[in-house]
Amino acid sequence: MAHNLASTTLAAAVRVHFGLSQAELGRYLGVSAGQVAHAEAGRRRLPALLTLRLTRLARLLPPPEGTGPPAFVPEVLPTGPPIFAPVVLVSEPLPVPGPLAVGPLRQRQRQCARHLVLLRRDWHALAALATRRDHRRWVLAVLAGGLVPHPADVAAAAPAEQAHQRRWLAELAAAVPAPAARRPEPRTALTLLLLRLAATEAEAAALARLLAGTQRTGAE
Question: What is the reported pTM?
Answer without folding.
Answer: 0.72
